[in-house]
Structures are given as structure tokens and as C-alpha cells.
Amino acid sequence: MTEGSVSTQGKQTSIRDGWQGWSWRKRGLVVLAGVVQVALFIAAIFILAGQVWRSSVLPSEGATPEPVSEQVRDWDKPTDPRELEAYNFAHSLELPDSLPKLVPFDFNKYARSDRSTIAKAYFKHLCETEAGDYVFKTIEKVEGLYQMRPRKKATEEEFRDLYRMEDPYGYVNGETEDVPFMFLRKHRYRYFEQAAPGSFVDMEGTYRKYYDDSLFLLSDIDDAFVIFWTENERENRSLRKRYEKNRTYRYGYTWRGIYRVRDREFGIAGSELIVLDLQTNEILGVRRGFALTGFRRPNWEFTPVCPRYEIRHRSKDFDFSYWFIRKVLRPVDPVEWPDVTF
User: Does the pLDDT of residue 249 top 70, yes or no?
Assistant: First the structure.
């Protein structure tokens, strides 16, 4: 070693001698302290990563949530002026304060869950806090009612789109083309009213031979409403139709889709079926319900729903609307389920 140089050998020897001179307990504490520091460093990295994920995927309180993947869209709105008028009226109705209020869903509670788990938990939350049949007033001996918003038959493309259908919960095929048959049965209503031209006008081909010719008559320019009735509840050919210039029946029903935070993103759709007094616009009853479908491969045609159809252990059935409406507007000669002949 040259003069003026610094020797490191002595330092290394002293450190080694010092380490060897420590007791095993002291050595263990030093090692443990090092392990704890490394563990805290790794934990900090995971916590920071979790905060970044939560802020990017889940909304903070009061913030507007962003969709996880697909672009959020509005449902399809009517383009026909009369249908749009009925749509706007349905969405303008103010419901009684006694209905359950919206209870926010805690997305942050499921920060580490996958989308399927969140969807099921969210659906359960809505079913437990909001869904149900709410009857505010019962009207007895009702002969006829007015359908304010007829339903159009859904296409395969609509069933498999998360956003296009306004009311997947309340939709059933049986309440589209031949809806009068759902309401004009024995022990149900005697008259069913729609806006002109009403059902059956567009039905062509061999089906016509099974129905009375009056069902396919076109309305005059000043005919605004159509009334259906039947002379024999058990025969299709007994169903009749006539046009009127003014609405005849006082009580009616309509429906509308409802929004909930991030609902369609998680394969959930809600709606309300509303029964009302058309003279006073008094709300007589509301059925609020929700449907759940897969968000990767949606199919609204067959989905779990709440409230469920109470008969035959099905989610929904052909007379899904009548099932609730008859609780509010009692027919002249009603028969209670399950003692009913279909």
C-alpha cells in the first residue's frame, strides 16, 4: 500500500468482526427490520395501484361514473309523433312520495370484484330496496281500460343489445300484436281501448281467416281511438273492433323505462308500469321492476326479473301487465289466482 492511500481492508474486517460479535437475537432483529421495510414498500406499491384502479373504474362519492368498456347509449325513442307524445307523457308523470326512494349502491365495496359479481350484487340491491307492486287506490267493477302506450314486437338485434330496448323488464311478446286477448278473457275486462288504428291492422296472410273482419278495418281520418270487445271469451272469431272519435274509458295504464347509475353497463334494466285515472291524472298504482342479463352476451328475452310473475313459477308470462293491473283496476267478475282458467 502506498503512502497516502486509504485502506478498506481494515474497515471490512471491523464490520465483519462487529457482525460476528453480535448476539443471534440482535442479528435477528436487524434482519426482521429489513424484511419489514421491504414488505412495507411492496404494500405501498399495491395500495397505490389499487387507488389508481379504483379512481379509474369506480366513481368517488358525488362523481359521475364512467363506463368500464362499451360506450353508454340511450335507449331507442319513438319517432312517430303520436308514439313520442305518449312516451313524453309517461316520462312526465310524477309518482307519489310514498314510493321507496333511490338508495345508492356502494360500488366501492366491490372494488376488488369482477363485473359479474358486481352485477349480481347491484341487481339484488335494486330488488331489495326499490322493486315491488305499489297499489295506492283500488277501483272496483271496472269494465274497460285504455292502453296508452302499445308495445312493438322486439327484434333479435334489440334483444341482444344492452341499450336499445327501453323496457326489457316489462316486455313480453304476448303483449304486442294480440294484446286485446290478454285483457278480454273470462273474468277479466269487457272492453279494451287503444289509439287508432289499434292492433291487428298489419296482420296479413292466413291469420286473417281466424278473426272477424272488423279487426282489419282501417280508421277514418277523424277516428282517434279503437275499442275491442268480445261476445265469447273462448273464441278468437268473437273479438270485435270499432272506432271512436273520443276516448271512452276513464282508467288506463302506461309504462316507461327508468335509469339507475351504471345499470345497463352491468346488464340491468328497470321500468315502471303505471295505472292512473285519466280524468285527474291521479296515480293509482305502480309496479317497479328490474331485469338482469349478461353484459358480454346480453339477451333480454330470457332474464331473471324482480318482481317475478307469481303464477306457474316463471319470471314473466304472456299476461305480465294484466297480472299487476287487475290488482288496481278490479274487473266486474274477477277470479283470484291461482283459481283461474287460462
Answer: yes
